[in-house]
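task queued by scheduler; priority normal; single chain, no ligands, no partner chains; default sampling; output format set to structure tokens
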Amino acid sequence: MILMMVLLFFAVVCPAQSIRNSNNSVIAKVEADGTIRNSNNSVVARINSNGDIRDSNNRLLGKIGSNGDIRNNNNSYLGKVESSGTVRNSNNSLLGKVDSDGTVRNSNNSVIGYAKGVPMRYAAVFFFFHFWM
């Protein structure tokens, strides 16, 4: 019971998870509903429960399929996030990886950021596919 109360407290008090660069500075936050805010707290995108990636004006930018496929708004295949966290582009070339602890690495295995507590697919879209930049 106490554990449930502690978990509920943190779910209510800390609903957003931080995305950090390699210097550990917060560069974005992902809210529980999939809203992504930049460091100025402006909404830059939303990823909804069916995988649609939308900009702050609700325009469709792309989609994350349940199988990890990433597609743009024209349904062109851009790449994939594998269940292991490995991220590949449309030519199957390695872009990087999102480790189970949220560490994000490029294709040279260098740390480029951190997304602890952020769904792996969301972190991959943020760091490797740049829909809203």
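post-processing summary
- Confidence is low (pLDDT under 50) at residues 1-13.
- The first strand starts at residue 17 and ends at 21.
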